[in-house]
């Protein structure tokens, strides 16, 4: 059987060899930790602590601000130093809880569950909600909302996004190699919520060891299987993954549940396991610190709220000062101008490069070659959409299905004229959506 995939996409330089063979290393923070109250899609969390309060590791410090929201927990023990705006990776100033780490890591009391099979659907979802589990692949959508579709009986596939298609990122790869049993147990817990669903681990074929390991461990699991995917970006995009695994297509007006699917990232499924089985809230995650500017690229289990500078130090520091730093992957991540930024639940990687190759590029006129059309996984015409954006043609942009863009950057990557197509389209999307909200 051939490898499953989608139409379009690109093949950027992978760069995974820098960190893929480095086992996960725990990094305990030394300085203060900063917890932005917006680490997820939806309403910000509301602080429940005050300056001067003593807190324990695993203690609730901010409660969910609504149904589509998520609580936040201290990842260290210490004292609340301040509640004030702090800058985050995207450049915004966000209200944050600052905790002075006492270095003792004294923990709150956790309540493991010895009989997960005996839990009801509502009890599982409540545990996931209370633990602050969100989509940790980058989107940050509260997981308890995703696991509560209107018609759960129509869910046929629980898809584990094990593709990790962004170049350089290897955190999920290491998780699959080092924590496969917990990953499978997390999938088993989610499957308890959906009686008719099958669990599918979608893994790109550039990770044959992960495919082999999970195939072996799921051999006697009648409701689970491993799906080998063609290595291609953006194979891990939600719509592309659903199409590759099931052959079902969704658009921007649909949810995965409308196609009978729920998609969760590797780190998210592990967080579900920790929440339900171990009774632990989200306090840690694994992130890849890599790039040619880093002395010892690797994969690090960090305490949420840790400063990026401490993670770089754990990776041996810089060979020399990088020209480019990116939070996330090189295709969809955010450029950073400082390392004085806190990590959050969705911080999957930090990339540091000696040269900023993109900044050196001078775009030229479109030559109408059509390469962006071939690459677009949504079958759009990016060159036209970018032109509409640059000319302020919002109505035409929407009529040409500009809102279907998933902002993957494939069009900019293949453009021989080096035009920033994705950035123009993303800007117009924001304007159109903002205008719709006002109406």
Protein model, in words:
The chain has 439 residues and is α/β, with parallel strands linked by helices. Among the domains are: 163 residues, NADH-ubiquinone oxidoreductase 51kDa subunit (Rossmann fold, 3-Layer(aba) Sandwich), CATH 3.40.50; 68 residues, no CATH class. The protein contains 13 helices and 17 strands. Helix 5 links the parallel strand 10 and strand 11. Helix 1 crosses helix 7, helix 4 crosses helix 7 and helix 10 crosses helix 13. The longest helix is centred in the C-terminal third of the chain and has 18 residues. The model has no long low-confidence stretch (mean pLDDT 96).
SSE succession: EEEEEEEEHHEHHEHEHEHEEHEEEHHHHH
Secondary structural class: alpha/beta
Proportion of strand residues: 15-25%
Radius of gyration computed on alpha carbons: 21 Å
Number of helical stretches of at least 4 residues: 13
CATH H level of the domain at 116-278: which superfamily?
NADH-ubiquinone oxidoreductase 51kDa subunit
């Amino acid at each position: 059987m051939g490898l499953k995939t989608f139409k379009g996409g690109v093949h950027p330089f992978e760069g995974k060899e820098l960190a893929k063979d480095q086992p996960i290393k725990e990094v305990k923070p030394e300085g203060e930790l900063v917890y932005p109250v917006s680490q997820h899609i939806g309403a910000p969390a509301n602080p429940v602590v005050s300056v001067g309060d003593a807190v324990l590791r695993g203690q609730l410090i901010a409660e969910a601000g609504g149904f589509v929201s998520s609580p936040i927990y201290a990842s260290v023990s210490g004292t609340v130093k301040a509640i004030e705006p702090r800058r985050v990776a995207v450049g915004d100033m966000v209200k944050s809880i600052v905790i002075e780490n006492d270095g003792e890591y004294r923990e709150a009391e956790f309540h493991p569950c010895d009989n997960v099979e005996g839990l009801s659907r509502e009890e599982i979802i409540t545990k996931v909600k209370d633990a602050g589990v969100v989509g940790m692949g980058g989107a940050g959508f509260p997981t308890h909302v995703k696991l509560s579709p209107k018609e759960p009986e129509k869910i046929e596939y629980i898809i584990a996004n094990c593709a990790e298609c962004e170049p350089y990122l290897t955190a999920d790869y290491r998780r699959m190699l080092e924590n496969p049993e917990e990953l499978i147990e997390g999938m088993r817990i989610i499957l308890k919520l959906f009686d008719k669903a099958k669990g599918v681990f979608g893994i790109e074929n550039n990770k044959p060891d992960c495919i082999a390991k999970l195939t072996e461990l799921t051999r006697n699991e009648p409701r689970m299987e491993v799906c080998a995917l063609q290595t291609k970006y953006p194979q891990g995009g939600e719509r592309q993954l659903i199409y590759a695994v099931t052959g079902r297509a969704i658009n921007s007006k649909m949810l995965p549940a409308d196609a009978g699917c729920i998609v969760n990232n590797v780190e998210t499924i592990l967080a579900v396991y920790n929440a339900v089985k171990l009774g632990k809230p989200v306090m840690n995650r694994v992130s890849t610190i890599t790039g040619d500017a880093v002395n010892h690229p690797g994969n690090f289990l960090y305490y949420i709220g840790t400063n990026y500078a401490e993670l770089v130090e754990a990776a041996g520091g810089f060979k020399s000062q990088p020209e480019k730093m990116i939070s996330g992957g090189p295709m969809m991540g955010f450029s950073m101008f400082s390392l004085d930024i806190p990590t959050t639940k969705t911080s999957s990687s930090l990339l540091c490069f000696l040269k900023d190759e993109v900044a050196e590029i001078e775009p030229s006129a479109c030559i109408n070659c059509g390469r962006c059309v071939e690459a677009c996984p949504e079958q759009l015409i990016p060159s036209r959409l970018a032109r509409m954006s640059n000319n302020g043609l919002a109505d035409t942009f929407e009529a040409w299905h500009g809102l279907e863009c998933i902002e993957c950057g494939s069009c900019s990557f293949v453009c021989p004229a080096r035009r920033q197509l994705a950035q123009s389209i993303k800007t117009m999307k924001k304007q159109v959506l903002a205008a719709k909200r006002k109406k």
